Every structure is written in structure tokens, then in C-alpha cells.
Amino acid sequence: MNWELLFQLTLNGLIVGALYGVVAMSFVLIYKASQVVNFAQGEFLLVGAWACWWLLTTFQLPFIAGFLLTLVFMTLFGLILQVVVLRPLIGEPVISVIMVTIGLSIFFQALMKWLFGVFAQPFPPIFETNKVNIAGLEVQTVYLLSLAISLVIMGGFAWFFTVSKHGLAMRATAFDQQVAQSLGISVRQVFAMSWAISAVVSSVAGVVVGVVNGVSSALSFYGIKVFPAVILGGLDSVVGAVVGGLIIGVLENVAHFVDSEFLNWGNMFQIAPFYVLIIILMIKPYGLFGTKNIERV
Amino acid sequence: MAGISLTPCGDFRESYRADTTIFPTRLSRAFAIAAVGLACLAPLTGDRYMLSLLIQSGYLGIAALGLNVLVGFTGQISIGHAAFFGVGAFSSAFLVEHGVPVFFAIPLAGIMTTAVGMVFGLPAARLKGLYLAIATLAAQFIIEDFFARARWFTGGVAGRVTEPFSVFGFRFDTNETYFYVVLAYVVLMFVSAANLMRTRDGRALIAVRDHYLSAEMMGINLTYYRTLSFGISSFYAGIGGALYAHYLLFVSVEAFNILFSIQFLAMIIIGGLGSVMGSLMGAVFMTMLPEIVQWLADGLAGSPIDRALGLGSAVSYLREMTIGAAIVLFLIFEPDGLARRWRLIKAYWKLYPFSH
Asked: Do the domain assignments include residue B328?
């Protein structure tokens, strides 16, 4: 048993899991506010990361400037997507909306492949030192940064939903749209805002992953890994999304460890979360923190 | 999907019998039979390329019909249809390898696929459509991984070679002959689906889609019918997959990815959710789409647009983009798909020049 490897992998799992948590949170944000299951969440990461990469490499901008421009672009991207594509579908059956997001997902995936090619492209280096030593373990600086950014985003979400006016309006809309409307909250604005925030937050995660691993179409797979995380945590729980993301991140690394040490099946890293997903659907379909949907006539 | 059950004005169904016919009028029955007869003549044209496109539309159409039973008629959604299609293809090839004649292997492959579908469908079918979508997404990845892993079943990365369809020693191994096999299956499967929709079970499925609470109050067992619908859908996918295997005579592990699943969804959206014939129209549209994109790209070759965008090398991405865009645009502007367009065209001619 290789304890050091296990420890290293668990740490990796926590760091990646925090990113899953961030993406899952932005997924839950859209689901809570507008009841849309967004299968195109991964494409937010993809589009954001490619946009940032393009700004940095083509115009040689400093990282901070390129990053801020990306955030502005993603705000507009989320807003336009909601207004143009999702708004006409309000009131349509839930499966139509799901299928529209699937259509969007493959559209943007193909578009990005067309514009930027299929090969992974590295970001220009951002830090001078690549690795730092923490408690005897080598940790990449970007990983530390990603953990820090994840924590900041999570804190930001907590502040947004408990203190800020817009966050409270969003929670009210998620609770009951009609009541929210009668209190003077513009539900349309809340929908648009939720998509914009979700796109921005996801693109931050996309840029972080891009800095660590290079930008490629593999980024959109984060959008699919979100499903095990949110089902585990409960579809409509922000806390659940974070916890689910962390658990899935650690789980896939531990599965990888078990696989490489004992089983030698290969590919457990990719597949283990989906087995968990099926098991959760069987025994606890509303997840750890989700509200049980009691239906009355 | 609101307008699916709406019949055009002037189409009165006065008796219970008239309401449950497969074809609304005698003329439409005659047309359907004539269309099948005309299709029988297709191999005589000798255009092998067109025939291969027709065969593709045939087996894809059968699988799409299965998905339409699930999505269009029951209101559940599956994002793993290609995986089940693949299970059908590999099952049939596997059975043939172990001495089962192809003639029996195809329906048996359908049954095996149903069994696999049950494993994933049962936990999710009792929940809302959304959860089935996520469970089938998991099924897509788990089954794909299984294909790559299970050498005894799929032949591993090398794939599996199989035999052509044969009856009493006659081998259907050319486009011209295999076309009739696919045609026979298409007719059989489409007539059974149209028939299913006339029975209590079929109408129960539609009731579940339209309002599941009301359906339950009318004594329809939701779990049973959701599971049944998922079973039917897997069965059709399996038959389609088996026909695919015995057409190409080689099944590769990588063919059944999530993009293929989304193509099935696109087929039924474009064809028309909740329309039996729409599934076939969607499959034909989807088979023609790459040809059309290729044709457009060829037509623009050398022009300034081509030089600016580099169309030649991007055709496969353009195809994917068209699929995605088609899904989005159809759902926003024409949620009932080509089937509704077709009805409007028919109504236009029928009522011309007094359309109201």
C-alpha cells in the first residue's frame, strides 16, 4: 500500500473537487432560479477558457486584464443565451428545455473545435515558481491558486445569497415565482442574472483548469461530471453542490488509486462517478441535501 | 408538444372505431401501401449510394422510433440511446458468433438490449423525466466503458466482425438485397408502433406524458408504464443496432458515443415528437444532413467564404454545429417538427382554395 501516493491523490481530489463544487454551484444556481437543467454547463468553462486564452495569446495582454475582459464577455454571453434561446421556452415542458441545452452544448463544442482546433493549448506561464513544498508534498502553485479561487467564489456565493439584495431576490424567485413577482421582483431579470452569474463563475473555473492542464475540448467534460456531484448533493442545494463536488473529486482519485494498485481495470477514474450516480438514484434520489419533492393534487 | 393531438378542422371522428384506426382515411392507407410498394422498387434504380443512405435511414429510423416512444409519447428522456443501439449491435454479433442464425439473432438482440435497459431504467423510471435523463447519461458512459473493457462480448478495441443476414442459405449481403430486409423490419416495427398507440397501453403512455397526476388518478400505474416505455425504447434501439451490425458486418467500439445519442434526439425533434412517421422523416433528414453540408462546402470551395473560414477541413465540425443548431431552432420555432409541416402541407392541398 502506497500511503504517500494515496495522500497525494486525495489532495488532488480535494483541489479538483473544489472546482467541481464551483461548477456544480453555478449549475444549481440556474436550476434553482429558472428550473432549467443546464446540459451546456461544461461549455461555459470551454468558451470562457478559450476566450481568455485567445485574448492572452493574440493581444499579449497581461493576465489580469485578459481575465477581466473574459468575465465581461461571459456576462454578456450568459445574458444573450438566456434572452435569445431560453426565454422563448419559458412554460414549455421540462424535457424540451433539457433538449435545447443539449443542442446548445454540442453546438458550442463543435464551434470551439472549429475556431481553435482539437489540440490542447497551454496558457502563457503566470507564476515564476511552479511548485511549492507544503508539509513534505509537492504542490503546484496553480493548484493552490485554484483552491484559493474556489474558496473565494464559495464565500462570495454565501455572501451573495444571505446579504445582497439581488441574491435574496433570487432566493425568493426560487422559492415561489408568483410570490416573488408580487413583491416587485422582476423574475425575467432574475433569470437573466442567474445565467450571467453562472456563466461567469463557470468560466473562472474554466480558466483555472486551462492554466493547470491547458485549454482543450476536454473542458466540457466538467459539465458532465457536474451531474454526479449535484445528484449526490441534491439538485437544489448550493451547499450540497459543494459537498457533492468535493466527494466526487476525492472519489475519482481514490478509485484511480484502488484501480492502479489492486484491480487494474483501467479507466475507473472516469467511470466511478457514474456508478455512484446510479447508486444514489436508486437509494436516495433527492441526494444528501436536496428538498424532497412532495406532490399534492 | 402542445399541438400533437390536435386534428385539423373538418376531421371529425364520430365513432370510437374511427378514433382508433391506424390510417385516418382510406386514401391515406392506400398511399402508405403505395409508398411501401414504391420503396420495393428502389433497388431497381441501381443507385447504390442512394440505397445505402436509405438503408441507414431505415435502421436509424427504427431506433429513433423507439426513442420517440419514450420521449414523444411518454415524456421521459434518454441521453443514452446510442449506447443501447450499440448493445443491440454487439449482442447480435455475439449471438451469431456463438452459432445463432442471424435471422433469430436480431430479435434476440432486441430482447437482450431490453434487459440491459431495465438495469438502468428501473431505478430512474419511477422518478421524473429529469432523473431518467441523468441516469441514461450515466448509462451512456458506463456502457461505453463496458464495450471497451469486455473483450469476450465486443472483441475489445479490435471490434467484432459478423455475418450477413441469410435465410435458407440465401445471403443478403449486397445493398440491393439487404434493403429488403431493412424495409421489412421498418414496416413491421412502424406498424407495431402505430398499433401500440391505438391500444390501452399506448393511450396510457400518452396520458402519462400529458398529465401524470391525472393519469394516475385514472388508474394508470405510473411506474409500470414508465418502465414499459423505457423497455420498448430499448427494444427498438436493439433491433436497429442489430440491423446496423449485419449491414456493416463490423461493429467498432468507438461508434456509440454521446454525439450519436444526441443525433437520435435530433432526429425525433426534427421529425416531430410524438409522431410515428416523424421518426422516419427525422432519420432521413439526419442521414441526408452530412451530405447536404458536404455538398454546400463543395459548392463553396474556392470562393472567398471558403478561404476565409477554411470550410474544407471543418466539415465534420460544421455537421455537429448544424445538428446542435437544428435541435435548438426546431424546439424554439417548430416544436412539432417536420410531421406538423407535412400535415400543414396536406391540409393546404386538401382545403385549397378555401382554407377555412
From this structure: yes
